[in-house]
Amino acid sequence: MEHWWDHSHYTEGSGVYWFVDQWGDFNHDPVMTGSLEMKWCRTCKAAYFDTPGPTLCPNNSRGHTPSSETYRVEGPRDANPRYHHQAGWRVCQNCFVYFFIGNGLSRTHCATGRWHVPLTMNLREVERLPRHGNRPR
To answer: Partners of 36 in the beta sheet?
Structure first.
């Protein structure tokens, strides 16, 4: 099963991205790569990283409303070479939303009221690569 990015980002020039859920996609990807870390917020329609702490949702003061599925996201080392991926995606350390940094931080919008702050580890930004383009048929 996959989830399609299905909201206003299409009208803003964004592309098509898809994520594999915990059940896998055995018709297209029998070898699963990446780690199961991401949820889909049913309230604000954003992909975000599941954490043991609170998350920030712009539409729900109690935090993101998680999807029942957990989605797989790949890093540069474990990206499946069978699929196109797009670089430039990060996790915000304030709201845990998955966001695109490629147009500049000043063009992003965080639930904190400013722009996203990329999550860092050992002073290096952690990049997460979505599968980009139409899924295989």
So the answer is: 72
